[in-house]
Amino acid sequence: MSIDQAIATLPRALSSYPDRSAGPLIAQLVERVRLEPFNAVATGIFILAILHTFAAAIFARHAVNLQQAHDERSRAAGRLPRPSVRAELLHFMGEVEVVFGLWAIALLVAMVAYVGWEASTHYFNDAVNYTEPLFVVVIMALASTRPIISLAESMLGRLARLGGSSPAAWWVVILTVGPPLGSFITEPGAMTICAVLLARQFYDLEPGTRLKYATLGLLFVNVSIGGTLTHFAAPPVLMVARAWGWDLSYVFGHLGWRAMLAIPASTLAYFLVFRRQLGDLAHRSAAADVYEPEDARQAPPGLLPVPPWVTTVHVAFMAWTVVTAHEPVLFVGGFLIFLGFAKATVAYQSRMDLKGPVMVGFFLGGLVIHGGLQAWWIGPVLSRLSERPLFLVATVLTGFNDNALITYLASLVPSLHDTLKLAVVAGAVTGGGLTVIANAPNPAGQALLARFYGGAVAPLGLFLGALLPTIIAALAFTL
Length: 479
Fold this sequence. Notes:
By secondary structure, this protein is mainly α. The protein has 24 helices and no strands.
């Protein structure tokens, strides 16, 4: 096989496979593996990566236990405890954000063995589009800055005061008003703001485990469907809007208004289920005084109150990033300029920790590397289904792939009927809260809130927490 041929086949164009849509699905997939054996290899590695994400919490727990045992042995021997190499390696394996990057190494090794170095690097460097991971890094870093969080906290605080500024009021406002912001400032931006405010106004009060997972699942689902109000901000919609000719009125008229019904309905349902636990948090907050917006409190030591002009510049940088979301040279360049501005206004800034955004970007980069090699089986599955089954399959598949990847692959299916197009997008956003990898902003939310879950979110706990909001969203989109 020549290099040119190898480059053309990884991933092999869907149009190069014989049309077997009239035969059984299994026979069609088996034939595609026979024609391109690397399909099975790439999907096998992808499945292992998914299993690894589900097992990440186990690695994290073993890392903690191993470090504790190592410390006890060190003290018994009269030595100062030091980090255990094995414990640190297990901890690294337990970081969900690194999973797909680690398995991308295995994919690269397998690809090099199959088609050689040049064809493999062509796929990683040229065939994979890293714009979305880069964008998430930048918008997440901007959205987590002190001026933006203070602005969002002040605005949402006005609504929370209608409910007495209680933890329950903050909880309802953040989870109802915050997610639809994803249709304007992008879902990663909305996720970051919601997660930071929930950490400050809710999680710091140490709610019960069931309520914590219900809140996380509700947050993920609401952010996923909250991006359907417009056609230009949420990746699952953005991936297909231009190809299918969807504009603002079409997206809101078919999807957005349904999301605006599902979000408050899901939030109200969980509020009724957990109203007693939410009410109990008010007694804790009265002592901790954590639910007042920063504007109503004294600025943190060493920092001055944020002046309006600094907030305005931050908002302008976020707007620039959103407008140039498809031009990485422009939004990355703008971010570098922003870093200089943040340095110049350090008296009004909190410490900027770029580890979280970079790790989330690494996670998404690994996901798009693996996802780009899954079209061989996702395409035939989607193209064979009618409206309701397609909605359900898209919802389930989203739990194992980023929902933007599902909608993108659907856009490659020729002659897809308008009702099927709506079904696949609605299903993709409906399932966006079931797992950490189901929606691009979810890793950002996990990175910001993982400390409240013992360092790692349990996949089963997240699934169960997201199940009721997912069902409500499914009813809103299908009835």
